[in-house]
Amino acid sequence: MKRWSTLVGRFIMLAPVRTVSTESRRCPLLTVQPCRGMVDEKIQIIIRNLLPNQEVTVHSLHQSEDKDFWEAFGHYISDEHGKVTVAKDESLGGTYEGTEQMGLLWSLRPVPGSRPALRLRKKNVLTPMVVNISVYSGHLSQGFSQASLLATTVTERWYMAPGVQRVNIRENGVQGTLFLPPGPGPYPGVLDLWGGGGGLIEYRSALLASHGFACMALEYLAPAMLKLTDVNNTYFEKAYQILQNHPLVQKDKMAMLGLSFGSAITFSMTAYSRVIKPQCCVCISGSHVVPVDKCLFKVIEDFTGLVDKVPVNEDNHLIHRDMLLPIPSDPALKVDVGRIKCPLLLVNGTDDQNWPTVESAEDIEMIMEKAGNRHLLTVLTYPDAGHLIEPPYTPHFRASNFILYDTKKKVVMLWGGQTKPHAYAQEDSWKKILAFLQEHLYSSNVKAKL
């Protein structure tokens, strides 16, 4: 796809940078480029016209669609020319430290006094994530709303690039949203499955469409739908066929992408379905240790029925991973991944506290080795990353609120991960996921425009 900067003309211009005079009568100049771009695109933040060796705080502020405020900040010292370049200079403190070009995004956290255990997720992909970037004199860690600004500006972060089409899918009992890239097509297809939190989650699909893939976000844990429909293998086969049969989708260039429980479904469907025959699969933070002979509602019901037996940490956060340990030796208790006939990419974090993904990956490797299909497996394991490995620069959540579908009970789920290594895992794995999909869904003479 064309870079965002060539498409800025399709949007109204942002307000210009506002600066506030300092006592030294210098006017600091803050630039953020691009001012409007994709969420997986890096931004350049530069502050000029400071005093030499001046201490400043660079601060980001975002108000979520739930009206909660999130902030991040770094402490910097200008060089001898009165300049700070976030991509090159070191943050000496704040919500991140070191030379971190995107730290003002991936270290976002709720402002003090916010509701507990929040998670930041984009609901409406037709609007951008708006982030205010500001500069303050001195090294501040609180009281930003009362402090005097040196300079401030706004940047927009989009999941959906110009020209991407969003299409509601309500067909044959299947519910989802299809995102189609710009241009005439046809495009490779990706069926996108989120995890046990349920609902229709669109932002990853919108971003994949922005990279040249026809991607369908599938809703399969909607409470109203579960009361009406026995969601089993047939539901996912119908969804796969709807995507595959779309006139702008290449029938022989299909993939499945799952996170958490969505990965468990991906393992099962790819191994056993006579309908779902993808050219490749990506499984993020998942396990093959799931019952495959039950309807989905029954599986969720079994999991939530055991919630009172799940251990908690000192903060009363549920450590869900122990429910699947130890990895069973009985083949009947796990998906026979030896039956998988397409390239498979696993993405895991060593500090995943929700699913035993590292242990599962080791067992998957042994099963596939024995079956003779180990050559199809690629495993990415990220030290100190947690469960929710999302698109790059998404803030890290070690724990957050979670609604148990069967009981409607709200708990705080421990996802795991340390902020900086988790941020690295998200950035690195996203590049490799895109490369993996491109390699297996595009022929040598038709490359994705990344």
UniProtKB/TrEMBL annotation:
Domain BAAT/Acyl-CoA thioester hydrolase C-terminal: 234-442
InterPro entries reported in the protein's UniProt record: AB_hydrolase_fold (IPR029058), Acyl-CoA_thioEstase_long-chain (IPR016662), BAAT_C (IPR014940), Thio_Ohase/aa_AcTrfase (IPR006862), Thio_Ohase/BAAT_N (IPR042490)
Keywords, alphabetical: Signal
GO BP field: acyl-CoA metabolic process; fatty acid metabolic process
Superkingdom of origin: Eukaryota
Keyword S-adenosyl-L-methionine: no
Pfam families per the UniProt record, alphabetical: BAAT_C, Bile_Hydr_Trans
Residues spanning the signal sequence: 1-22
Gene Ontology MF, one: fatty acyl-CoA hydrolase activity
Keyword Signal: yes
Gene3D superfamilies to which the protein is assigned, alphabetical: Acyl-CoA thioester hydrolase/BAAT N-terminal domain (2.60.40.2240), alpha/beta hydrolase (3.40.50.1820)
Active-site residue numbers: 260 (charge relay system), 352 (charge relay system), 387 (charge relay system)
Domain Acyl-CoA thioester hydrolase/bile acid-CoA amino acid N-acetyltransferase per the UniProt entry, residue ranges: 40-171
Family, per entry: Belongs to the C/M/P thioester hydrolase family.
Protein name: Acyl-CoA thioesterase 14 precursor
Name of the gene this protein is made from: acot14
